[in-house]
Each structure stands twice: as structure tokens, then as C-alpha cells.
What we know:
By secondary structure, the chain is of the alpha+beta class. It has helices at residues 14-25, 83-92, 128-135, and strands at residues 6-10, 33-37, 40-46, 53-58, 72-80, 97-100, 108-113, 118-124. Helix content is 20%, strand content 32%.
Amino acid sequence: MTGFYHVCFVVPDIEQAMQDFRRSAGVEWSGPVSDRMGEWDYRIVFSKGGPPFIELITGPAGSPWDASQGARFDHVGFWSSNVGESSRRSEKEGMPVDFSGCPYGRPFAYHRVDSIGARIEFVDAGRQAAFLDAWHPGGKAMPVCEENPTG
């Protein structure tokens, strides 16, 4: 496994969370972005200066980023050379898929890791250049979990 590139917190109020991180730890932020996946509108922001990055995300009740029960640590993100293989490997190791963006045209998957009370996210490494352009212009390429298709 290679180094993670972000940690994520699901929060009910992105601006408040950004302000609190800024005041407590001096974290600087990019501007929040609104988007939609399937039936869910959500907002997302990443810290500046990473990796690793801090991600804050909020979505409506019932969404993968439901913050109706309060803020929480949600996941650790890794780049993957093959999200499908990362998912198969994780499931084989007892970490079931909790949500996949793949059916929505978003190449990522969350896997539940009960021992840490959070998820692991695998994101297709083909998205890394666009991520860097949007959130870390001029940033260097990040490590990728290399997966070899089985059988």
C-alpha cells in the first residue's frame, strides 16, 4: 500500500468546519465547490498545501455524506491504478464496499473498515491530474496503489 493523499470529514456546515480548522491549526482552504451525483447535491472542499489534504464534504440525509447525525471522520483516500481490483482485493480481505461512485460515472469506491470505524476510499489514478488542477495547481504526482488484475 502506498501513502494516502487525503483524510475526509463529513460535516453539516463546511464554512464552520473550515473556520474551526483555520483557527485551531492554521489550515488554509481552497474555495468550496457544489456538485451533484445521482439524486444528491453536495458540497466539497480541500485544504491547500497538501498532500496529504484534508477534505470536508456535506450532503443530504441518506447520501453517502449524510451529516444529519453530526460531523464525523469519514475516510482515508488513496489513488488506485484499478478501482475495481482495489475493491475486489478489499472485499476479499473482509472490507465490504460501502458505496461506489462508479455507477454514477465517478471512478471511486468506499470500503468499510470496522476496526477503525471509518472507510477507505480508492480513487482512479486517471483522475489525479484533474484533482491537482482543481485543488493543488502545480502540485507533483502522488503515489498510486498499483493493482494487477487477477485471473
